[in-house]
Design a protein that fits this description.
about 160 residues, alpha+beta, Killer Toxin P4, Chain A, 3 helices, mannose-binding, fungicide, disulfide bond, lectin, host-virus interaction
């Protein structure tokens, strides 16, 4: 009879033993050479887009795409993805971690992405016209600014 009273306690202990935090080891990030004027409205659009990615990636099957309007009839696109083995809470924590890292690494970049072990996040502004850019868009390719770390037995989702 005492066994049945211990079952909930055993289950609770097992839950906490199995749960793990997301691995936010930074693997790489890429920043576009083209940048926008920090005093323009693009920064708010980028922030809104990435906040949307943080808020919805875990709820949208761990693979979420979004877009938000930007000044001059432009659009900021965003994407977030998590390792499918993560819990909902851990996916949310991972993209929440990635957001400020992306902003810090790639301040004012027209396009940027960051990849950590358990999630990734990216943003870019449509390239139809950019009257407020401080550099022309003739170099729209991403440039690697940090060497990738070798994945040893990593998860193939990212």
């Amino acid at each position: 009879m005492a066994y049945y009273r211990c079952v909930p306690l055993i289950m609770l202990v097992m839950f906490y033993m199995v749960r793990a935090d997301p691995d936010t080891s930074e693997l790489e990030y890429h920043c576009n050479n083209a940048v926008y004027d920090p005093n323009s409205g693009y920064r708010a659009s980028v922030d809104d887009t990435l906040r949307d990615v943080v808020a919805n990636t875990a709820d949208k099957a761990y693979d979420y795409y979004t877009s938000h309007p930007a000044p001059d009839n432009q659009i900021v696109y965003g994407h977030g993805a998590c390792n499918g083995a993560l819990s909902h809470v851990d996916c949310q924590a991972c993209v929440s971690y990635a957001f400020p890292k992306l902003i810090n690494h790639c301040a004012y970049s027209v396009g940027a992405q960051i990849k950590v072990k358990d999630c990734r996040m990216s943003q870019f502004i449509s390239q139809f016209s950019h009257p407020t850019l401080t550099q022309p868009l003739h170099t729209p390719t991403f440039v690697q600014v940090q060497a990738s770390l070798e994945l040893s037995g990593g998860v193939g989702l990212l």
